[in-house]
């Protein structure tokens, strides 16, 4: 169920980013409502990660980024962030339990995890149906399993906005749909907004409420159908998409 303009929202106005004298982003304006899933698409180097880093407060920017609660009151939102999948050495010995416990409590990975902290990790993993992963070694996780662990970490504590940078990268087709179904479940259960980037256009029609086509500036914003069938999309990606979002010959 997509959000409504009258509820809480993230409002980005006239955002610009310049790094080392080079213009990375310019004139970025959009609104993300509560319970909305918004997809960010664009070619490599379009500025998607820089936009995320601006919202996270990691790089300087011009313009404004505001979050408002229902009733129009400005607020500082809790933001959960899932970066592009990091790679782990397959022989890395620590378990998901060790990794998660260290991340949320700074518990040393070389010490046994106490019972109360194990219970907390189990509770967090349950939010993404990942309890069975708790004893697996981080280095042996599949792409989809690793995304579940990182997503569970981003949901502790429960944020108001969840940002995911290429969450489908390294995930097989079956895993993609499981992950996207989970994101849809999470946004409804916890009443949060989701902003994610992707190069997989075939899933947008079924999972995204809005799509932004970005190439340093916003070229097109709208429903998946409006963006994927736009002249702007065809000019950027040189693709003609059929009705279901697949590539047409």
Which descriptors would you attach to this protein?
ABC_transporter-like_ATP-bd, ABC_transporter-like_CS, ATP-binding, alpha/beta, six-stranded mixed β-sheet, Metal ABC transporter ATP-binding protein, nucleotide-binding
Explained architecture:
- Residues 10-241 form the ABC transporter domain.
- This is Metal ABC transporter ATP-binding protein.
- Keywords: ATP-binding, Nucleotide-binding, Transport.
- InterPro entries: AAA+_ATPase, ABC_transporter-like_ATP-bd, ABC_transporter-like_CS, Metal_Ion_Import_ABC, P-loop_NTPase.
- This protein is an alpha/beta fold.
- The chain is built from eight helices and ten strands.
- The protein folds into two domains: 9-85 and 160-237, Rossmann fold (3-Layer(aba) Sandwich); 89-140, no CATH class.
- The protein is 31% helix and 25% strand.
- A hairpin with a 1-residue loop joins strand 9 (210-215) and strand 10.
- The model is unreliable at 244-249 (pLDDT under 50).
Secondary structure category: alpha/beta
> What do we call the CATH topology of the largest domain?
Rossmann fold
Distance between the amino and carboxyl termini:
33 Å
**What is the radius of gyration computed over CA atoms, rounded to a whole number of angstroms?**
19 Å
The H-level CATH homologous superfamily of the largest domain, spelled out, is P-loop containing nucleotide triphosphate hydrolases
Strands, count:
10
Order of strands, widest sheet? 6-7-8-3-9-10
Under the CATH scheme, the architecture of the largest domain is 3-Layer(aba) Sandwich
Give the C-level CATH assignment of the largest domain: Alpha Beta
Give the biggest sheet.
Answer: 6 strands, mixed
Could you give the order of the helices and strands? Answer: EEEHEEEHHHEHEHEEHH
Shape designation: globular
If helices are DSSP runs of H or I spanning 4 or more residues, what is the number of helices? Answer: 8
How large a portion of the residues is in β-strands, by DSSP E? Answer: 15-25%
Helix content: 25-40%
Keywords: ATP-binding, Nucleotide-binding, Transport
Domain ABC transporter: 10-241
GO molecular function, one term: ATP hydrolysis activity
Protein name: Metal ABC transporter ATP-binding protein
């Amino acid at each position: 169920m997509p959000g409504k303009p009258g509820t809480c929202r993230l409002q980005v106005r006239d955002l610009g980013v310049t790094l080392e004298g080079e213009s990375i982003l310019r004139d970025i304006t959009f609104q993300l409502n509560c319970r909305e899933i918004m997809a960010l698409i664009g070619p490599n180097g379009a500025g998607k990660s820089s936009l995320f880093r601006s919202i996270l407060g990691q790089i300087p920017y011009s313009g404004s980024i505001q979050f408002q609660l229902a009733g129009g009151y400005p607020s500082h939102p809790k933001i959960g962030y899932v970066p592009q999948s990091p790679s782990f050495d397959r022989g890395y010995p620590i378990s998901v339990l060790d990794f998660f416990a260290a991340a949320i409590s700074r518990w040393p990975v070389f010490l046994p995890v106490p019972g109360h902290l194990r219970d907390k990790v189990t509770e967090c993993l349950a939010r993404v149906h990942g309890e069975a992963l708790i004893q697996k070694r981080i280095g042996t996780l599949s792409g989809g399993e690793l995304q579940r662990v990182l997503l569970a970490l981003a949901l502790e504590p429960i944020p108001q906005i969840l940002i995911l940078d290429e969450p489908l990268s390294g995930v097989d087709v079956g895993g993609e749909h499981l992950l996207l179904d989970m994101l849809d479940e999470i946004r409804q259960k916890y009443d949060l907004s989701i902003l994610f980037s992707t190069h997989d256009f075939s899933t947008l029609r079924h999972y995204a409420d809005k799509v932004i086509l970005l190439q340093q500036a916003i070229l097109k914003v709208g429903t998946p159908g409006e963006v994927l069938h736009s002249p702007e999309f065809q000019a950027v990606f040189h693709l003609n998409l059929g009705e279901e979002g697949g590539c047409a010959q």
